Amino acid sequence: MTPGTTLSLAGVQHCMLHDHLFPGDGREAAAILLCATTPGPRFKLVVQDVLLVPHAECARRERDAITWPGAYLEEAIDRGESEALTIVLLHSHPGGLFAFSEIDDASDRVTIPSLFQAYGEQHGSAIMTPDGAVRARLYASDLVAAPVDLVTCAGDDIAFWWGDAAFCAAPFVGPVAFTGTMTAELDRLHAVVIGVSGTGSIQAEQAARLGFGRVTLIDFDRVEHKNLNRILNTATGDAQAARLKVDAFADAIAAYRGPGVALPCAESINSRDAVLAAAQGDVLFCCVDSLEARHIADLIAAAFLLPLFDVGVVIPVRKILNGLAIADAVGRIDYVQPGGATLGDRQVYSPESLRAEYLRRAAPAAHTQELDAGYIKGAVEEAPAVITLNMRAASACMTEFIARAYPFRLEPNRGYARTMFSLAACDEDHFREDSFARARNPVFARGAREPLLGLPALAKPNTGGTR
Predict the structure, then answer these.
(1) Is 174 a member of any domain?
(2) Whole-number Å distance between alpha carbons of 421 and 403
(3) DSSP 349
(4) For residue range 411-437, what is the model confidence (pLDDT) as tens digits?
(5) ∠ Cα 351 380 372 (to 5°)
(6) CATH number, domain at 155?
(7) 138 and 189 share a domain?
(8) What tens digit of pLDDT does each residue of 300-330 get?
(9) Distance of CA 401 to CAs 132, 133, 209, Å?
(10) THIF-type NAD/FAD binding fold domain location, by residue (predicted)?
(11) Could you tell me if 168 and 317 are in contact, meaning their C-beta atoms sit under 8 angstroms apart?
(12) Can you tell me the distance from the alpha carbon of 421 to that of 400, in angstroms, rounded to the nearest whole number?
């Protein structure tokens, strides 16, 4: 069963919180999370702001108890009220208890009502253990608490901390890569595949076969005869009927996983409905050939604190006496963690290239400009035989997710923010997260605040782009 409530943290936030909550003195410490929301059906909280409570401001700091200073509760209310942010009071459990104690319950009975007196319909509390695991609960205005089903953290590693007894009884022993324990956890998670064509169909097939409980498929395009050689789970009948790619693929998944796993979204990713569908997921796989679509995926990942895996392939050519020859066959896999270097920071796209792509699409004035739009750069090929290259790249992309969520590498994952491989040179290169300059991200942890993703074109109808 996929979770109904989720609290999402970025890795950079989690590191800051862990350093503050465990100063080394063996006593509890406190912080306050200010969280934006995501539209349903799944209720997701996105940590937008973090307020660290100075250790000296807490009148009482012991191994198993802490007193919340009223001034910082008031500051949290002042920061969150204008946007109706949900306030979550977080403190550490230096002894490692991954549960709420009776002392925690008594503390909440004192502090939580003061939050509701100020504003809001839902606020909460959370605890963190020395290994970084987080457990949270939410209170309604009647002060009845309910556990948050899942707390996620997308950093160099991707962590999932569950709030139910089946998964939280032993938080220090997580699922192991490539085993049934991994499959059992994936069954509770939601993957989103943006683009269900060459690499995307392979990515979606892997997600479904690995056992993701939900797989949202986002693509507006229809099956054609020319792409049957590289889109999995499509047939001649699909091309003849010009079926939507997402519908054809969803039916194929239903045949071996049953109904309700595949969720087709026959929209462009730059539509409001598609963005909101993607925001429901736990992990994004971007498998598109458009810079604009990659830009939107970048924004979604940042706004909703989702891990993003972007895959691309290209076959450059060179001129020879009698025509063209293949110069290389190249694949790229980027892992983008919220708060880290975006695809834009990594020059996968730029304002100039986005503008050029738009002009090429809106007014294709020259044949030479159109040559850059396909797999094989510099040659027109209607049905490129690229499924082997796509398989290689898509497999590396999904394996990168597994390595982050269920670490098995001999080296830290931070060294693998980008992987580039060359089939011609039989070479593979890796790039560290720190090797990319990072600009300020204005949509970081924005959640669903209007206009969506900060783009007027995605504003809720009749809002005029305001909240």
Answers:
(1) no
(2) 18
(3) S
(4) 999 999 999 999 999 999 999 999 999
(5) 10
(6) 3.40.140.10
(7) no
(8) 999 999 999 999 999 888 888 787 888 899 9
(9) 20, 20, 15
(10) 184-314
(11) no
(12) 14
Token duo for residue 167: 């998964």
Burial (CB < 10 A; 0-12, 13-18, 19+), residue 145, is middle
Distance of CA 4 to the CA centre of its chain: 17
For residue 3, whether the previous peptide bond is cis, meaning omega lies within 30 degrees of 0, is no
Domain endpoint, select from 141, 168, 195: 168
The 8-class DSSP code of residue 131 comes to T
* 399 domain residue, yes or no: yes
The per-residue pLDDT for 364 is 62
Residues 240 and 321 in one domain: yes
Q: Which residue has the higher pLDDT, 385 or 220?
A: 220
Nearest to 284 by CA among 258, 265, 272, 302: 302
Residues 89 and 197 in one domain: no
**Res 316: pLDDT:** 85
Residue type, 456: P
Instruction: Report helix angle 198-210 to 245-257, nearest 10.
Output: 20
Report the 10 Å Cβ neighbour count for 229: 13
Together in a domain, 136 and 277: no
- Looking at 168, 200, 229, the residue that finishes a domain is 168
Residues 54 and 101 in one domain: yes
Say if residue 196 is in the same domain as residue 337: yes
> What 3-state class would DSSP assign to 373?
helix
287's tokens = 């498998």
Burial-class residue 36 by CB neighbours within 10 Å (0-12, 13-18, 19+): buried
pLDDT at 462: 77
Which letter does DSSP use for residue 53 in this model? P
Kindly report the pTM of this predicted structure. 0.94
* Cα separations in angstroms, 187 against 148, 180, 182, 201, 423: 18, 11, 9, 19, 34
Length of the chain: 467
Run of H or E including 355: helix 351-362
Q: Give tens-digit pLDDT for 362-409.
A: 776 544 454 455 666 655 566 678 899 999 999 999 999 999 999 999
Residue 318 lies in a domain: yes
| Measured distance CA(457)–CA(350) in Å, rounded | 20
Domain extent, residue 316, equals 180-458
Higher pLDDT, 74 or 360: 74
Residue 451, preceding peptide bond in cis (omega within 30° of 0): yes
Our count of domains for the chain comes to: 2
pLDDT one-digit tens code per residue, 36-47: 998 888 999 999
Distance CA 144, CA 138 (A): 8
What confidence category does residue 177 fall into, taking pLDDT thresholds of 50, 70 and 90? Answer: very high
Same domain, 64 and 136: yes
Establish if 464 belongs to a structural domain: no
Whole-angstrom Cα distance, residue 216 to residue 104?
Answer: 38
Pair 28, 140 in one domain: yes
Amino acid at 152: T
